[in-house]
Amino acid sequence: MKIGVPSEVKVEEYRVAMTPAGVRELTEHGHEVVVQADAGRGSGIVDAEYVAQGASIAPDAAAVFAAADMIVKVKEPQPPEVAMLEDRHVLFTYLHLAPDADLTQGLIDSGATCIAYETVTDAAGRLPLLAPMSEVAGRLATQAGAFMLGRPAGGSGVLLGGVPGVAAGKVLVIGGGMVGANAARMAVGLGADVTVLDKSIDRLRELDEIFAGTIRTGYASVLEVETRLAEADLVIGAVLVKGAKAPHVVTREQLKLMKPRSVLVDVAIDQGGCFETSHPTTHTDPVYEVDEISHYCVANMPGAVPITSTRALTNATLPYVVRLAHGVEDALRGDPGLLGGLSVRAGRLTDAAVARDQGREWTRPEEALAEAVTA
Q: What is the pTM assigned to this prediction?
């Protein structure tokens, strides 16, 4: 199979979907890889490194899409990329379709087979392709929030770690999954006073054991959220509902409970955001203020550290890319977790959560796969 790796074109996205090590693995399996010129530059990878491992270099995205059977990306395709998709293509990337009806329709109209990293599961029901970027985003969330608390950045002027004789800042993490655990780990490392809220008692037990008393945990009831909001200097939204829009766990009315110039970091912004007042921002202009509360809602947070992110992502995606390259239908049929990542196939939406959020009809993935093969 011919695998194409285009440059990422989302604003301020510096990652690339494959490292030279990934190219080498694919070429060793007899596949061809075409990489867009300078696609890896933002991640510290020059074209010669790809060529040395067997890739060919294409001058632009159009040439990559024309040559490739499978397109491997990082972020959801932008409109010019959607326009280049054909029904012969397999698209493998983060899609985050739930909050984006236009993208959903564009992929349906393309006829391509579209598989979302963020809804692929492993044998234990975990999200192996979301995990590495969740780790990065969680750690960045605390790092970004700590900086935004500085007075020059518009924050209250609290140092999360405090100093002898002065109390540490208070960090509230809402959501105890991969993002939340990594955000908490960074906050503890800075010396902050950390509370993690979640609605899974089992997960709270796990976190209690993992952090061995260095954090507080609580059940994420409305009252508990409101109580903790009033105390917090930094609130990190780390709520995930697989494939669906994130629920709002903090409303605009509840912002009134918070201390002026406190900071919200919404890591769920790719899925619509978990704060009612959230809207996507960029690395260049990351923060805005609502009711004296700073909001940091950068939609591609891991893109800020592409050297780390690109390598972590390739480590996770490469085994799946190799299996898909050997045969898309066989790979999907042979792995229920990978089949669960199928979002669009032959003009049909196959993601129930997206269908529910957008009020669309959908087809079960296995049915869409069978219909396409039969046709």
A: 0.89
